[in-house]
Write a structure and sequence with these properties.
386 residues; alpha/beta; Ribosomal Protein S8, Chain: A, domain 1; TIM Barrel; eight-stranded parallel barrel; three-stranded antiparallel sheet; 15 helices; 11 strands; globular
Length: 386
């Protein structure tokens, strides 16, 4: 007799098919393959008692602090430990329960949805300025156009073009200067129809600049301010573009001045929920919304690490996730490394984010990421693709 542990969900699915399990049975068992740990903040104590009993009744569990049974405190934090099957059952049960559980039910339902793996796309970075934090990403004039061609040939599915640095402490650039830096690139993308070879993204939050880019064949808006300006949402809707909503605390000039959160994951998640609702109210559906936690944008090292560990939680919104930590200073804070030597750390961060559900990787080093992701896919997802 021989036995060993089957490590990944795709490998488990493949094995069930190999064993001859019917497709319906595979689908049923898939809901039991993964245990999810869901932190519930500020839960009313009577609700915690009800949820605890409901969880136990379906085979899940709820970890609660001492004194809950006697309602010693009004509110508590609790940790729900459940499979997707359990979450589906609890989502139904809690719809009829009081003390806020009715409002919790749809959220549990969102976590219960299995997130089918999306194809991972590389977004190559091109900065049409002379002050971005990584000198290797700065291209002006003909050099910018050569770099665009090079990134497409290396395998970039998306090319992200920006003309304003968002490094910590950077000063804003007026609309005229931003437009002047971008104009040659926009004209070339339009005249050479480069948008037929890759998706072009405009890294801007200025409506006039975004409009000019969309007129030139761009179809992706990368807004570091998180679509706080409703005009940006309207432009994405009008042109049928994808809108990336990034979280940032403060502004690029001030964001690293002592950033603080009570719970960074919960606060970023709440921000996404608000901005998605704002987009939907203006007619932009979540199928055209991408979420970016904003690594390094108003976050300490621990905030960044926490968001990476919890990245999969944001899949509940049903939107694609983008990760952009290319050569950022968090690498230097873990192990002192100059910017030009941070590629290995970048790959480690990005592969972890992809493992947690990110499907767009924004990076400076396209060829290296294409190779790393091909190997990652062969290891992690190859069993399911075969």
């Amino acid at each position: 007799m021989k036995c060993y542990r089957i490590g990944t969900v795709p490998e488990r699915r493949k094995l069930l098919r190999t064993l001859g399990v019917e497709s319906g049975g595979v689908a049923i068992m898939a809901d039991k393959m993964e245990t999810l740990w869901i932190l519930i903040r500020d839960l009313r104590t009577p609700a915690a008692n009800i949820l605890k009993q409901d969880a136990l009744s379906v085979g899940a569990d709820l970890a609660v602090p001492g004194g809950v049974i006697t309602c010693a405190t009004e509110r508590v934090d609790a940790l729900l430990i459940a499979t997707r099957k359990h979450l589906k059952q609890l989502a139904r049960k809690e719809r009829a329960q009081p003390f806020g559980l009715k409002e919790l039910a749809p959220i549990l339902g969102e976590f219960a949805r299995e997130s089918h793996p999306r194809a991972v796309r590389i977004m190559g970075v091109l900065n049409a300025n002379d002050d971005s934090f990584y000198a290797g990403s700065r291209y002006l004039g003909d050099a910018a156009l050569r770099r665009i061609e090079e990134m497409i040939e290396e395998g970039a599915a998306i090319v992200d073009v920006g003309a304003v640095s968002s490094r910590p402490g950077s000063e804003p650039v007026d609309e005229g200067e931003e437009m002047e830096r971008l104009r040659p690139i926009l004209e070339t993308v339009r005249s050479r129809r480069l948008w037929e070879r890759a998706v072009f993204s405009i890294d801007s939050y200025t409506p006039a600049v975004i409009s000019a880019a969309l007129e030139s064949g761009f179809s992706f808006v990368n807004d570091i301010t998180g679509a706080r300006d409703p005009r940006v949402i309207d432009l994405a809707r009008e042109y049928g573009a994808t809108l990336c909503i990034m979280h940032m605390q403060g502004t690029p000039k001030t964001m690293q001045h002592n950033p603080a959160y009570d719970d960074v994951t919960a606060e970023v998640d709440a921000f996404f929920a608000r901005q998605i609702a704002a987009c939907e109210e203006r007619g932009l559906g979540r199928e055209r919304i991408v979420l970016d936690v904003g690594i390094g944008f108003g976050k300490t090292l621990e905030h960044n690490l926490t968001l990476l560990r919890n990245h999969a939680t944001f899949l509940r919104h049903g939107c694609e996730l983008l990760i952009g930590a290319s050569r950022k200073s968090m690498i230097d804070k873990v192990i002192p490394t100059p910017t030009e030597k941070r590629l290995p750390g970048t790959l480690a961060i990005h592969l972890k984010a992809v493992e947690e559900g990110a499907s767009i990787v924004r990076c400076h080093d396209v060829a290296e990421h294409v190779q790393a992701l091909a190997l990652w896919r062969a290891i992690e997802r190859g069993a399911e693709d075969q």
